[in-house]
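User: Can you model how adenosine-5'-diphosphate sits in this protein?
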Amino acid sequence: MKKNDFTEGQQRVLRQVEAFVKEQLAGAEGGHDWWHVARVRNTARTLAKLEAADAYVTELAALLHDVADAKFYGGDEEKGPQMAGAFLTSQQVAPEVREHVLNIIRHMSFKNSLEKLSFYSAEMAVVQDADRLDAMGAIGIARAFNYGGYKNRPLYDPAVKPRQQMTKEEYKSSEAPTINHFYEKLLLLKEKMNTAAGRAMAEQRHDFMVQFLEQFYKEWEGE
Ligand code: ADP
Ligand code: NI
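Assistant: Here's the modeled complex, given as structure tokens:
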């Protein structure tokens, strides 16, 4: 999507939102920083075109989806939607666009999807797929080990088995080695894609992670 597919007013709002998000994410952990948001926006744009989703809502939701990660706000999952909502109001964004964007960012996190999903739209589908795709493939691997390093977790411990079927609380409080995260989340994402275009991209990124794990275990055994 070229910038000039948006009206002047939309372009101005998008510039303001981009500046706001960059400011909020200054100093964020490397896997969840402005560049994560920029990648999600790029992927969401691609998917929005293929899935005929509204470009403006998609762009706003992609930009604002991680503005306040609950992990870093004492588990407060309303913090992000609150901050995003206040900013959109300050920019005089139409109430129906604002509500749509807030519904998307409230409902799209993986933690929420372990529980029931109560909102769906084409725009929500593409932004959620784009966010999940960024947790897969080469970038997904880099982000996982960056996060594990940030939390000072071991890379791998053969004695600590991955857990399936975690509750939301167990997922949040997990102290497991980073390799376990592949089995607890990353390898499960392929089956959760909403759109056909997202699923095709997910297949390729999934296969790359499987290949990475095979090589990792070989090297671990000194092969
Ligand atoms: P979401 O975008 O769904 O909120 P998270 O905030 O849970 O995702 O994760 C952000 C990034 O950190 C993702 O790439 C994710 O795979 C990674 N991550 C989250 N939890 C862990 C963990 N326990 N071990 C390794 N990486 C993790
Ligand atoms: Ni994200």
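A couple of observations from the model: The first helix runs from residue 8 to 24. The CA atoms of residues 120 and 167 lie 22 Å apart.
User: Helpful, thanks.
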